[in-house]
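Page 47, continued from p. 46.
Same chain as before, 186 aa.
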Amino acid sequence: MKPTLIGIVGSNADFSFNRILLKFMKQHFAEKVNIEIQEINEVPLFCENGMKNPPAIVNEMADKIEAANGVIIAAPEYDHAIPAALKSVIEWLSSSRHPFDNKEVMIVGASYGIQGTVRSQMNLRQILDSPGVNAKVIPGNEFMLSNVKDKFDENGNLNDEGTLKFLDTCMDNYLAFFSRTRNELD
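Result:
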């Protein structure tokens, strides 16, 4: 049986190359994994007063993450960090339910610039490693798609063979990481 992964779009913008990247990954890796794309645009900003009774959408997202075998987060970069909307989602999810606890996470990202999403991925990794979140983030396999405007064709497919090969390697390494950590728990 194929693993089920939740692919979190780390942006609440109407247009996002990170969403396009996750949609491509869902189609490209369909024979290996089932990827369910999770939008964050309807999650309200975190409010400490709502921790005891989080919004229904937060509970639904937590249920999906808990039931999934793993998580992929597409992390855009805004002011050298992840966007506030993604920070807010993680805050909701780490304040009451803790679905990321010991959950294997792969971080990917697409950006217009040459550095890809290196700073946002570092920021997200620190957040996911922190107490209360406690995710298992795959080390050393960051997929950072730079100059993204030139990397997708009109159908949303990656058009650069080297980039595609690297994405395949990252996914294979993530699945091996996932299997290895699951076997350690058994």
